[in-house]
Automatic annotation (TrEMBL):
InterPro entries: Acyl-CoA_N-acyltransferase, Acyl_CoA_acyltransferase
Ranges of biased composition (kind: Polar residues): 116-136
Organism: Aureobasidium pullulans (Black yeast)
Protein name: FR47-like domain-containing protein
Region span, Disordered: 116-140
Length: 338
């Protein structure tokens, strides 16, 4: 397993490009940047091969790791068998070894003390839901249990084929939920220009103000930290009345660290107006360009979302945006001592 320098991210992005959209979560996370002193890139393929665009015939795995993000997602992975699964099982022993080797490197990754103690101030408030079922989220006790145990690491948007390997190797931490909670990966092909929709009279677009993070977190089943929300592109919708705009949003959405459409919410009294679709199109049109500017070519214009299998309303929004369900992903916690 090779540790790659962070300044090699563009070479890695170019090398991963043929594996889209399967590797989109890691691909977009690299494009987003916002690396910290604790960020790490690992690859089973030598950097000199990557830079020459040669794809090895044997199985490979690459990962972005940032343990300072804990207890939110700390690892994004892409592997050859996710994009192109061999017809027989001859590749499995190699894949097993690669996964073990990667987890060994992850276990050595440094956790910067100051950055790994995020639950302070407002983050300890009741804005963290008592019961959560979002992306790899768990109830409050398990969320805090993860925070207190530095040996536990959260892997995000993991392809079902890699989850199967982790299960077979007995590497999943059974004390946490996640491995039995699949999410549908929706892909949006936005090569045609995305045009934001005009809002109904009495509404206006804006951004999510940090003063409203408590409200945002109280409405989601996904534990979020203020420090994460500050990094993310956002769109909010505000009610206008009497020539003035309300100070509190009635709908909002974000692009995640991996550019996935996330934390999309419309307050109950304003549902049925198509605002969720409007938010999504506004995010795509205003903010996806920051990722696409790092694309190796102009041909790729993908966006993506992860939707729980029982979330029919979000599935409906994704379909209305032209999204197609490609595969299942999971948010899973692994004990690196396991």
């Amino acid at each position: 397993m090779f540790a790659l320098p962070l300044d090699s991210k563009q070479a890695l992005i170019q090398w991963l490009n043929p594996c889209l959209p399967t590797c989109i979560a890691l691909y977009r996370r690299l494009q987003f940047g916002h690396f910290t002193p604790g960020s790490r890139l690992f690859s089973s393929v030598d950097l000199t091969i990557l830079t020459h665009g040669k794809v090895p015939s044997s199985p490979w795995i690459v990962a972005f790791v940032d343990r300072t993000c804990r207890p939110e997602t700390e690892v994004w992975i892409a592997a050859s068998w996710e994009h192109d699964t061999p017809a027989d099982d001859s590749w499995l022993p190699q894949a097993d070894d690669l996964v073990r080797s990667l987890l060994k490197e992850i276990s050595k990754a440094e956790i910067i003390p100051q950055a790994s103690s995020p639950i302070t101030g407002s983050d300890k408030s009741t804005s963290l839901p008592a019961d959560t079922n979002g992306n790899g989220s768990v109830d409050r006790d398990q969320y805090e249990k993860h925070l207190m145990n530095e040996k536990v690491v959260l892997l995000g948007a993991v392809h079902s084929s890699t989850v199967a390997i982790l299960k077979r190797l007995g590497l999943l931490d059974s004390s946490f939920v996640g491995s039995d909670m699949p999410y549908q990966k929706y892909i949006f092909d936005l090569r045609n220009d995305v045009v934001p929709r005009s809002l109904p009279p009495g509404f206006a677009y804006g951004k999510v103000d940090p003063k409203d993070y408590g409200l945002v977190k109280s409405r989601t089943q996904i534990p979020r930290q203020d420090r994460t929300l500050r990094k993310l592109p956002s769109v909010a919708i505000y009610h206008e009345q009497g020539g003035s705009t309300a100070s509190t949003p009635i709908a909002w959405g974000f692009l995640g660290l991996d550019a996935s459409l996330t934390t999309l919410h419309v307050e109950k009294d304003y549902r049925g107006l198509g605002l969720a679709k409007s938010l999504s199109l506004k995010l795509f049109s205003d903010d996806m360009g920051a990722y696409w500017q790092h694309n190796p070519s102009d041909e790729e214009r993908y966006a993506h979302a992860d939707v729980a299998t029982d979330n029919s309303s979000s599935q409906g929004v994704c379909k209305s945006l032209g999204g197609n369900w490609y595969f299942h992903v999971f948010w899973i916690r692994v004990d690196t001592d396991g």
